[in-house]
Amino acid sequence: MVLVVGPLAVNADSLHTGDVQAPDFIAQIEAHTPSELSDILHRVDSLLLEQSDFPSSRPLALVLHGEEARVFLRENYQQNRELVDLAARLDAFNAIDIQICETWLRGASVPKSELPAFVDTVPYGPAQEKALLEQGYEYF
Fold first, then answer.
1. pTM of the predicted model, to two decimals?
2. CB-hemisphere CA count at 13 Å for 60?
């Protein structure tokens, strides 16, 4: 997945939709851990709460293709309830778009039916990341 977990490099000016088209963003995840995913979702939540002009028409793309995707499995909901509920709320406000790699799902023997309805899947996560970057997305 792609969402920089270091200091948040995005500010209101770079997310504001004015005369200049603001870039679309893709998250950069490096450690592929639930903790890293949590940090990202909480940063997006903070931006959403702090900025009344948060561009809800342009959700942050989160392409998951590692162990962090297990957070969203039905069997892990009780353990990850706060994080899953936060992600569902952010998705409902169109602040994020979570996409999980189908190749990872097959390798982990996880059927799509184990994912919540708000989580989408893509055939191959790294290819989706590359395609988004080629479409002009920038790392968050």
1. 0.80
2. 28
